From TrEMBL:
<dbReference type="Pfam" id="PF04299">
    <property type="entry name" value="FMN_bind_2"/>
</dbReference>
<dbReference type="InterPro" id="IPR007396">
    <property type="entry name" value="TR_PAI2-type"/>
</dbReference>
<dbReference type="InterPro" id="IPR012349">
    <property type="entry name" value="Split_barrel_FMN-bd"/>
</dbReference>
<protein>
    <submittedName>
        <fullName>Transcriptional regulator</fullName>
    </submittedName>
</protein>
Length: 200
């Protein structure tokens, strides 16, 4: 988390919206073999927990149950050029959006994992405009059963939310507008849009 309080919104709904929108995270944990990280799709339970699954063969899988882990969800990011400011005495920086979720992890049972996969696919299939949504029952049961044997489901109960929304909030509005224009011209509309909507 960035130490500047300008970039730390006290807005739980905003954090949850980022988790929901991105739906993908890095999960970090300390293990007896050293620190490990896994990249995984994420499902919010909408009651203070997130669920994810990893390959059973992943080095971190055997260490997560009962561990305290850190889950990081990243949103858009972009380089900020000093040339976009009106004053010359500036330095380059990076604007970005990220939320750290820290909490205890528990392993899910087979029914919980199945439900997680249903929720995950329903969420992302709904984003595809054309065609009929894919569902688990469209694949032979034997194939699904084999897939389930190869993955492990987990739920992280979030005990701390640590957001960073670094969107030039420490700059005057006129300078933010200049940065927004620079970002749009440079092909970074995601950060520019977040600056318009969240850094005003």
């Amino acid at each position: 988390m960035h130490p500047d309080p300008h970039f730390q919104p006290d807005d739980r709904a905003l954090c949850e919206a980022l988790v929901e929108e991105v739906g993908f995270a890095m999960i970090f944990a300390a293990t007896s073999q050293g620190p490990r990280v896994v990249h995984a799709p994420l499902v919010s339970t909408r009651d203070g927990a997130v669920q994810f699954h990893v390959s059973r063969r992943n080095a971190i899988a055997a260490h997560l149950d009962g561990a305290t882990a850190l889950c990081v969800v990243n949103g858009p990011d972009a380089y900020i050029s000093p040339r976009w400011y009106s004053q010359a005495a500036q330095v380059p920086t990076w604007n970005y959006v990220s939320v750290e979720l820290e909490g205890r992890v528990r392993r899910m049972d087979a029914d919980g994992l199945h439900g997680q996969l249903e929720a995950l696919t329903a969420r992302h299939e709904s984003r595809i405009a054309q065609g009929q949504p894919w569902t688990l029952d469209k694949t032979p049961a034997a194939v699904i059963e084999a897939m389930l044997k190869g993955i492990v489901g987990f739920e992280l109960e979030v005990q701390q939310w640590r957001p960073t929304f670094k969107l030039s909030q420490n700059k005057p509005a006129s300078e933010r507008e200049r940065v927004i224009a620079g970002l749009e011209e440079a092909g970074s509309p995601g950060v520019a849009q977040l600056m318009r909507s969240l850094a005003a």
